[in-house]
Specification:
The chain is α/β, with parallel strands linked by helices. 40% of the residues lie in helices and 12% in strands. The protein has an eleven-stranded mixed beta sheet with strand order 1-3-2-4-6-5-10-11-9-7-8, sandwiched between helices. It is globular, with a radius of gyration of 21 Å.
Amino acid sequence: MDILSLTALQLGKAIKEREASAADAVRAVLDRVKEVEPEVNSYVTLDEEGAFQQAEEVQRLIEAGEFTGPLAGVPVAVKDNICIEGQLTTCGSRILSNFKPVYTAEAVLNLKKAGAVVIGKTNMDEFAMGSTTETSYYGSTKNPHNLNHVPGGSSGGSCAAVAARECYYALGSDTGGSIRQPSSFCGVVGLKPTYGTVSRYGLVAYGSSLDQIGPVAKDVPDCAAILEIISSHDTKDSTSVKRKNYHFTEALTEDVKGLKIGIPRDYMGKGLDKEVEEAVRKAAKVLEENGAIVEEFDLSLVQYAIPAYYVIASAEASSNLERFDGVKYGYRTADYRDLHNMYKKTRSEGFGAEVKRRIMLGSFVLSSGYYDAYYLKALRTKALIKQAFDRAFEKYDVILGPTAPSTASELGKSLTDPMKMYLGDIYTVAVNLAGLPAMSVPVGKDSRGLPIGIQLIGNSFQEKTLLRAAYMYECATEKWHETSANIGKEAQENGKTI
């Protein structure tokens, strides 16, 4: 049995049936990490000793019948902006290069209650500000499908780790597409839940009204099982929503008969790569052939999503990142004259260029004289975008389109043109502005061998509808994880692939 080729659920079943152990899984993952990590750079930190200790304890509790969940004993990686008590949490930034939290994020606590084994923290764009995982203080992460290309971002470390079989699944965070876009680029499944479904307690904030933790996995059933575990109502998070039903795996049925799917014409026009468009339409055809009703429609307001998002997100970032000043925790400059000079030098040395750019933009739109002209106008636009989605969901159950306008770009190409990088989020940011659930599902590769993903968007709290459609597509086509399991074999023939 090639243990690394298993999905998270398959491994969980194998551990439960004594065909493998949690320690076996940890050992296989860490051996794989040592093999490919010098090239991929998915992780910021690894907890090897702690992982084996966790595996031993989890195995004991599985055998004692105390851990009965489907993912007990399965190794998981956690994005480095999600706190774990006593473990370095850097957010990909120099300014938090020595920060060890004294508490653990609620989503991680939920995983541990289910018997998960956390093996490390994954690389990310600094403070989740970026779309390529190149702005990290700890170096760029590479796309396992082609090491000359980016994995996407900001959850690029989590997605690359899953794609390179350096973990079985991972947690990411999504503020404007940061789970879905890298999932598309790396050929894995990523889901951004409805805002408030997963507690934000312990997630270092970028844009508080937009951030949401979600799963990254090899296939749709894994995603559903992970979401079932991490979702909960949490009184420590004032935005947490108490839902009646968290049984997301109930949606895994091979039936989309009568499901109404809308494809926005706005998403399929200028700027969309031809190979991506072809893959999206082919995926829609598969769903239609299996009983779904597929139509094109005008969503409207798409062109306003990017400016509204970057005004709101930057404004919230400038406020949230004010706390990093060198006084209470984190990096502090070694040489300074007085308190004001210490603030200035600490933040100048501690933050990278992209974070500084967004802090300055956010401070500008919140400043006297510009607050009404930019920030309030962006909030009104956000409300209009939500209304446009509400109208669409009066007619359709699911909105289908591309996750990103192209496949993964080459390393170093996006950072030279920030506007181009921002425009790459055109299909994902509106979902966060409206607080909706959405997921990216792999549908093939382009002519260069780079993965293509489709995005499925649902109405608020309709994750089950998304999972149903995604699972049907996955069952009707070749399972992507079967292809992903061959990535290591491809590496023997192509030095650019892991």
